[in-house]
Structures are given as C-alpha cells and as structure tokens.
Design goal:
The strands form two sheets. This protein has a three-stranded antiparallel β-sheet. About 5% of the residues are buried. It folds into three domains: about 55 residues; about 55 residues; about 60 residues, Roll (Nucleotide Exchange Factor Grpe, Chain A, domain 2), CATH 2.30.22.10. A hairpin with a 2-residue loop joins strand 4 and strand 5. The protein is an alpha+beta fold.
Length: about 220
C-alpha cells in the first residue's frame, strides 16, 4: 500500500492531462525528436536522402496530426455540450412557472367576470357600485401587468381568423357577413406563456349559410 510520501512523489506522467496539455506535450516531443535527428557537426545529409523524411519522423508527424485532430474534435464536442447545457438552463428558467401560470389564469378570469358584472349604467346610478367597479378595474389592470411581465398573455381572438395553434373551435355559426373561419364568439379566453400555449381559446367560428351552400348553380340553356 503506497504511503503518503510515495503518493506525493508519483511521476508526472501518471497525472491525467487535459487534451490541450497532451497536444502541447506531443508537439514538444516531436520537436525534440526532430532536433536529435539533425546531422551532427554540420554534416550535410547524403544527396540521395534530401527531401525524404526518415520513417520515424513520418510516424511521429502522423501521430501529432492525429492527436491534434482528436483535440480539436474534443474541444468542438465540449463546446456543443456547453451550448446545449446553456439552452436547457434557459428553457428551464423561462418555463419554470408553467404549472403556476395554469392555476393563476382562472383567478384572472374571475376578475374579468367581476369587472363585467358591474356595468357602466349601474355604476352611474350607484356611487357604491361605482367605487366597487373602480376597485375591481384597478386590481384587474395590475394583475394583467404582473402577468405580462412574466410572459403570460391572454388570447381573445374575437373577429380574428381562426388559428388552430391557439384556438379550439367548439361551434360553427352561419354568417353571410363574415368570411368562413372568422371567430364570432369566444366562450373561453386562451393564454400563452411566452410562445408556449397554456390553454387554447374556446371559440365559435363563422361558416357559409346553408342556403348559399345548397343553392343550385344556374345553367345557361340558350346556345
């Protein structure tokens, strides 16, 4: 069993090196090997060997190139892993309140109903109802601002084209005044958290009247 002193005197080769350190070490070894391969005392190499690298140098250069390629691939993969991790953290932070948002939108809808239950005419006739209505309106406005700051937005698509990404059609309403697919009634408002749907808007959409759809086409019988 190695003692504390033996562990402290372990050779540096047993310590794990980073890919960058391994590349630097390989390049240094290659430089030393090529330096020792140079002719001594200034002697020139034979003419027939000029331009031909010794087999040992070729193998060393191949190993250095392979290690460099491996280090570059490792660094690229590490950067991809860091990018994916950053994206996962951003997604988690951005949509962390999804469950809370689904629960709180029912409270906001109740505030909308409370504000609509005190009409303008009743407010004008009763100072008490007017004060109550103003309090509900102020609370609703502040609630909407808080929700908006956290990326929660209400979908009320009345008189807008139907969008299957955010709307759910639960009824069709015949209308000759509106283009088919236009939202004519909103039974329940929808909500989104940033760009993610929390709940779709329940709507009724326009369709062409049955008489117009069943009307026979006139045929020109005069030739």
């Amino acid at each position: 069993m190695p003692t504390e002193q033996s562990r402290n005197t372990m050779p540096q080769d047993e310590v794990a090196l980073s890919p960058e350190a391994q590349l630097e070490q390989a390049l240094q070894q290659a430089a030393e090997a090529m330096a020792t391969a140079q002719p001594e005392d200034g002697e020139a190499p034979p003419p027939e060997t000029i331009g031909i690298a010794p087999p040992a140098d070729e193998e060393l250069q191949r190993q250095v190139a392979e290690m460099k390629d491996q280090v570059l691939r490792t660094m690229a993969e590490m950067e991809n892993v860091r990018a994916r991790a950053r994206k996962d953290v951003e997604e988690s932070s951005k949509y962390a309140v999804t469950g809370f948002a689904r629960d709180i939108i029912s409270v906001l809808e109740n505030l909308y109903r409370a504000a609509a239950s005190v009409p303008e005419q009743a407010r004008a006739e009763s100072p008490l109802l007017n004060t109550l209505g103003q309090g509900i309106d102020m609370t609703l406005a502040e609630f909407i601002n808080v929700m908006s700051r956290h990326g929660i937005k209400r979908i009320d698509p009345l008189h807008q084209p139907f969008d299957h990404n955010f709307h759910q059609a639960v009824a069709q309403i015949e209308s000759a005044e509106h283009a088919p697919g236009t939202v004519l009634q909103v039974m329940q408002a929808g909500y989104v958290l940033h760009d993610r749907l929390l709940r779709p808007a329940m709507v009724g959409v326009a369709k062409a009247p049955a008489q117009a759809a069943e009307a026979p086409q006139s045929v020109d019988t005069q030739a």
